[in-house]
Amino acid sequence: MASSSPAFVLSLFLVCLAIQQVFSCSCMPSPLQAQFCRAQYVIHARIVDFRTIYEDPPVLEPVEPEVITVPDGDTISTTHSMSDVDSEEIEPPVTQTETEDADHEEGEIDPEFKPEGPIPEEGPAAGREETKDEENFNNEISNVVTGLEGPLARVKKSAGLLPPPPLPNIEDVDLPEERMPIALAWQVEIRKIYKGTEFFSEDSEEKGPEKKILIELFTAPQDSLCGVTNLQLDAHYALGGRYYGDKLRISSCDIIRDYKTLTSRQKQGLKGGYQKGCEECRIKPCFASPCNETEDECPWYPFNDVDCEDAYSRCLRKKKGQCGWHSNKHMHGCLGKE
Q1: Count of other CB atoms within 10 angstroms of residue 202
Q2: Cis bond leading into 290, ω under 30°?
Q3: Of 92, 114, 110, nearest to 101 (Cα)?
Q4: Closest CA to 279 of 317, 241, 313, 318
Q5: Count of CB atoms within 10 A of residue 17's CB?
Q6: What is the dihedral of CA 135, 137, 138, 139, to 10 degrees?
Q7: Residue 130: CB partners within 8 Å, gap ≥ 6?
Q8: 83 with 267: CB under 8 angstroms?
Q9: How many angstroms separate the CA atoms of 257 and 232, rounded?
Q10: Residues 249, 251, 254, 258: what is their CA dihedral angle, to the nearest 10 degrees?
Q11: CB 327 within 8 A of CB 335
């Protein structure tokens, strides 16, 4: 079977990376030196505590009551309860028709009244029987109108509207008990600042067993959002990230290394060895072995079982002017060279 071409391997890797990105946070693999060069701050710190930051609860502003003016000049507030409406005495307005017909007795027909057009017949005389649905509907309407009594019925007749239902009191509104977390804040004790001293106070550089500098590192609340959620309390880490929004930020794509697992060469790199390489060379991931060095780049293959370059070497410019991985006995031992 023919070996896979470098282009095919790279395409397959990018497809898998895109699929994984849909469901979770994915980071391009990088050696410690490349992460150090990208970071704005790098520290050695001990994890002290953490807290969850929630979104602010919604603020309900008081609503001014809307006033409805009925024809006789009285007002009804939309915040009134139904009992308040019943307790008010609202008289219906006297219309012109009622004034003209005041001399007639109730039920008496005006002899001068002449209806325009034919008078429609109702019920069976109209030529058809009332359906069951129409009968039920008319009964319901009749019950509703019959149930209106007192001022409430007069308001309906005079204004043509029923008073709106009362608004709920803001104090009686039940707010949801569970709020969405928007961030995590890790409280850490700084032991050493390797990079980004400008982001810390002047007291952060003071040394001494009794001097404790506590800061907070902010991250997303979930792993799927590249949040750092699994740090162990009282453990020591090499941590690095970025500074924006007046806060020190960190994500799962930044430097998060258990300090006790760092090699002596990595610790030396944090103390200054990496910074020189950042100014001269760039580490470029290589997805097809063998990877060739270029003038300003150090190739790095991320799929080795043991990452000898990351653990025991640094990307620096050599005496011949070309960038490459610095050779030493630890690097040779890792690669199995004599």
Answers
A1: 7
A2: yes
A3: 110
A4: 317
A5: 12
A6: 80
A7: 123, 124, 138
A8: no
A9: 12
A10: 100
A11: no
Residues 273, 242: contact at Cβ < 8 Å? no
Longest Cα–Cα distance of the chain, Å, equals 129
How many residues are present in the chain? 338
**Around Cβ 298, how many Cβ atoms within 10 Å?**
27
CA distance 41 to 215: 13
Selection from 263, 270, 278, 272 nearest residue 309 by Cα: 263
- What is the pTM assigned to this prediction? 0.59
What are 272's two structure tokens?
Answer: 């200054």
Q: pLDDT band at residue 215, thresholds of 50, 70 and 90?
A: very high
Element (H, E) at 240: strand 236-244
For 309, the token pair is: 């370059």
What single letter denotes the amino acid at residue 10?
L
Q: Under a CB-based contact definition with an 8 Å cutoff, are residues 176 and 223 in contact? A: no
Q: Residue 91, Cα to own-chain centre: how many angstroms?
A: 55
Q: Give the Cα separation of 244 and 252 in Å (integer).
A: 17
DSSP E strand boundaries for the chain: 41-54, 67-69, 75-77, 181-195, 213-219, 236-244, 247-249, 255-258, 282-285, 297-300, 315-317, 323-325
pLDDT, one tens digit per residue, over 311-324 is: 999 999 988 889 99
**Site of tokens 């104090």:** 171
Query: What is the chain's Cα-based Rg?
Result: 41
Interval 115-161: pLDDT, tens: 565 555 555 445 556 667 667 666 666 555 555 555 544 444 444 45
Q: Angle at the Cα of 213 (from 207 to 218), degrees rounded to 5? A: 140
Q: For the chain, give me the number of helices (H) and strands (E)?
A: 10, 12
The string of pLDDT tens digits covering residues 248-284 is 999 999 999 999 999 999 999 999 999 989 988 999 9
The answer on pLDDT for 24 being more than 50 is yes
